[in-house]
Amino acid sequence: MKQHQFDIHTFAAAYALNALDRAERETFDDHLQHCDDCRNEVAEFEATAARLASAVAQEPPASMKQRTMSAIDGVRQLPPRVPVTVTTSLAGRLRRKAVPLALAASLASAASFGGLAVWQHQQSADSQQQARQVQQQLDAVSTVLAAPDSRTAHGRATNGALTTVVTSDRENKAVFTATGLPAPAPGKTYQLWLAHEGTMRSAGFIHSDGTILLAGNPSDATAVGLTLEPSEGSAQPTSAPLLLMNLPA
Q1: Which residues of 74-103 are buried (b: 16+ CB within 10 A; e: fewer)?
Q2: Which residues does 228 contact at the CB level (< 8 Å), separation at least 6?
Q3: Of the ranges 17-31, 39-53, 151-165, which one carries the lowest mean pLDDT score?
């Protein structure tokens, strides 16, 4: 795998999800004052996290509050927590290792609460399967975003949508985000492609604003494309590309 020097721009995802420590956050705050790309990227990641969380979220029933309040009197109080002392050097190592884990946890936690609500109140196999699929998507996306070798590229489609691609050699995966994507015409959908030595291979579908993990192997791909295709998809692009953007090197 290729080795890449540290780049402060890779802090954008962790910053959006409050996964940086105080010193790192202050450093990135200063960086944001003069980096339009990072400000846009932070906004995109914040919006993406909210959309992913809402995928399985469900409003609790009105009766839940009354049942909870009624049960409080019968719940045993937990003993006070005893502080745990950790040496400074160990704490530093743990903090550095925890940054990508905190990012993944931040993305996944909201969906976990939504998935729990679905499991408790619906108890249906379909809802549980949906929650599992969303959780898997969150895990996969957050792993790429938190990878130490992640690299980012930005683009704009001909229909005005702002796009971001994050790749990781270590994970051998890529994540695509679209913002401001117009609704496709009836019977149409947006299809993503990876360019491999002149051959376009399908990399999945994106139906509206959001973030997806690209299907396929991005390691030997040179670019990502976006076209408008029939709703069932196409084996090869059938329309002019709305976007053809080089993958971040």
Answers
A1: eeeeeeeeeeeeeeeeeeeeeeeeebbebb
A2: 184, 185, 188, 189, 190, 191, 239, 242
A3: 39-53
Same domain? 217 vs 134: no
Structural domain boundaries enclosing 232: 151-246
Task: Say how far apart CA 12 and CA 27 lie, in whole Å.
Answer: 12
pTM as predicted: 0.54
For residues 98 and 59, the model is more confident at 59
Sheet containing strand 188-196, edge to edge, reads: 199-206, 188-196, 223-230, 243-246
Same domain, 137 and 173: no
Contact call for residues 114 and 131 (beta carbons, < 8 A): yes
The verdict on 127 and 160 lying in the same domain is: no
- Amino acid identity for residue 228 in this structure: L
**What confidence tens digit (pLDDT) does each residue in 33-75 have?**
889 888 888 887 776 666 655 554 455 566 666 666 666 566 5
